[in-house]
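User: I'm writing a tutorial on reading structure tokens. Could you give me a worked example: one chain, its sequence, then its tokens, then a sentence or two explaining what the tokens reveal?
Assistant: Sure. Here is the example chain.
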Amino acid sequence: MRVLVDHFDVFVGGFWLTLQLCLLSATGALLIGTLVAILRISPVPPLRWLGGAYVTVLRNVPLTVVMFFSAFGLPALGSNADFLRIPGLSIVFSRLGIDLPYFRFAIIALSVYTGAFVCEAIRSGINAVPPGQAEAARAIGLTFTQNLRHVVLPQAWKAAIVPLGSVIIAMIKNSALAGFFGVVGDLSNSAQNLTSALGEPIIPVFVGISIGFLIMTVPLGLLLDRVEARRAVAR
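And here are its predicted structure tokens:
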């Protein structure tokens, strides 16, 4: 395990960059997924069709293809994803603000792709809400938006928390693709540099990468197990 000790700073730097990528992508996926879930239950047929088309396409396209279009298609269209350079957010996540756009492209790809799965998790939570509650909300004069905001979505989020956690865990593992599409400094990119540029043995390098991903996913998995166990006791 000499590689882990000698290049500990490389692994730590890659871990923190990957963690930032996952936090930002998870936030984007939750926002996109919630919006698409609302479209899918909208009373307006074209909006329902749009939400259904989004989910159908993104769930059946490999993430590699989405990453490719984000990393190479957006620059071809003249975009550097500068809209993600939010002043306050760029201070906390400094990589957003510097001239390395592939980090922002990776956030877009992971958010858009994972958003389709988040949508279905939230929609399952919406379906778990007793229909009578939505009907009662309409009976007292609440609009569709008010019904969602005050009655349906709060309960749907609680019902969908375990499926959402599973989706986020899958997204964390999927983030390993980012390094192969130009994100400099994350865990997978660090593995490429250590094995190809420095000639380090590949097995210890990937053991270190695996440890980094386990640190991110195992605590979340244990938390989800605890939430599910508490719900089972409550039932």
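What the tokens reveal: Residues 8-40 form the longest helix (33 residues). Residues 2-234 form a domain with the MetI-like fold fold (CATH 1.10.3720.10).
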